Amino acid sequence: xxxxRLEQAQLLKKVVDAIKDLVQDCNFDCNDSGIALQAMDNxxxxxxxxxxxxxSFNPFRCDRNIAIGLNLVSLTKVLRAAQNEDILTLKAEDxxxxxxxxxxxxxxxxxxxxxxxxxxxDQEHLGIPDTxxxxxxxxxxxxxxxxxxxxxxxxxxxxxxxxxxxxxxACNGDIGNGSITxxxxxxxxxxxxxxxxxxxxxxxxxxSLKYLVNFCKAQNLSKTVKLHISNEVPLLVxxxxxxxxxxxFYLAPKIGD
Amino acid sequence: TKKQQSLTSFFTPK
Lengths: 257, 14
Known about the structure:
The complex is a heterodimer.
Chain A: E1 2-6, H1 10-19, E2 25-31, E3 34-40, E4 46-53, E5 60-62, E6 66-71, H2 72-79, E7 87-92, E8 98-104, E9 111-117, E10 126-127, E11 135-140, H3 141-152, E12 157-163, E13 166-173, E14 176-182, E15 196-199, E16 203-208, H4 209-215, E17 224-229, E18 235-240, E19 246-251, E20 254-256
Antiparallel strand pairs in A: 1-5, 1-7, 2-3, 2-6, 3-4, 4-19, 7-8, 8-9, 11-15, 11-17, 12-13, 12-16, 13-14, 17-18, 18-19
Chain B: E1 2-4, E2 12-13
């Protein structure tokens, strides 16, 4: 059986909030290393890969592989009943038809308990090849969100260009064009403000802003975001959480002349 | 114009 206790419900609330507009029905695949989810959006352009490691829970118990088939809209309805600071416990049997969720207020004067009906979801998993990306950019997640939102006002697509001089986000729209160039920032006092660019070769790729703006809903999970880019392969946008857990988004590029 | 690619042309089912 699965028993997983989170000190603060907000972790799961934020994760589900960040992905529920991209994917609807998906399996939480549980085993002794944690809870994983992999799902593509309906258009097969974006993929969500979530890993909540056992270390992010206390305690975490799962002795077998258990697939918890969830509708994220339904899960959101239940999670809305949890306060951010509540202690959240997930429980499920080995072949579950429901997921038990309890929310305890930190001073333990209130315990809420819900059972959510599960779905049988036959989901195919994609093999994601290990890639040595040509460019890895680490930046404040709020900055990335601002860039994507600002450019989306002008255009459907953004071209991300990483070179030795910095990283440039450029768009071309009906009303004109715009670009934002970022250079390396080293803020010793406040490392969250750092902009780091690791480059093995220059890259330039175009992506749909609609999806990038959607990924930015994960901004609350982490103060920093990492973009991994190589020419002609999907972009990886990664939000790292405590305990080695992460939320990753993959986005297929736009290619052509 | 550039054409949106599908993820399935990069990632294959396990």
